[in-house]
């Protein structure tokens, strides 16, 4: 398997499939030449996590966890985290992503009503 790789784990009951696909497309467009694999994995109820792995012998790196980080990330912020945690800031991703401003980092912090009813 090629490395580094990113996995997006998401709850299908919450209908986060399209959101997950969108993040996949954004990461692939930005890191396409540098990333070995990006995958979508149906996960547990209410789960939305983005994890990475540098190589087959390394531990999984938590890039984003909806429950811990308080919602869904803005793609700019997610790309910054991937760049920092997987590439140690060595990959050039464009000036608009490299800028750090006081902008919101979340797209949404809404809970999944379907999963709350379970």
Describe the overall structure:
The protein has 118 residues and is α+β, with helices and mostly antiparallel strands. It has a single domain, classed as Glutaredoxin (3-Layer(aba) Sandwich), CATH 3.40.30. It is built from five helices and six strands; from the N terminus they run βαβββαβααβα. The strands form two sheets. It has a four-stranded mixed β-sheet with strand order 2-1-3-4. β1 (5-10), α1 (17-31) and β2 (37-42) form a beta-alpha-beta unit. The protein starts with a strand and ends with a helix. The mean pLDDT is 87.
Q: What is the CATH homology-level superfamily?
A: Glutaredoxin
* Unreliably modeled segments: none
Strand order of the largest sheet: 2-1-3-4
In whole angstroms, the N-to-C terminal distance is 37 Å
> Which CATH top level class fits?
Alpha Beta
- H/E element order: EHEEEHEHHEH
Descriptors:
5 helices; Thioredoxin-like_sf; Glutaredoxin; globular; 118 residues
């Amino acid at each position: 398997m090629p490395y580094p790789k990113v996995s997006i784990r998401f709850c299908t009951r919450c209908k986060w499939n399209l959101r997950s696909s969108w993040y996949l497309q954004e990461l692939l467009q930005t890191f396409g030449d540098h990333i070995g694999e990006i995958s979508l994995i149906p996960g547990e109820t209410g789960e939305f996590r983005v994890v990475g792995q540098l190589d087959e012998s390394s531990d999984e790196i938590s890039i984003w966890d909806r429950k811990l980080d308080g919602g869904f990330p803005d793609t700019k912020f997610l790309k910054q985290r991937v760049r920092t945690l997987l590439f140690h800031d060595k990959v050039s991703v464009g000036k608009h992503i490299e800028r750090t401003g006081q902008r919101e980092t979340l797209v949404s912090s809404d809970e999944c009503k379907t999963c709350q009813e379970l």
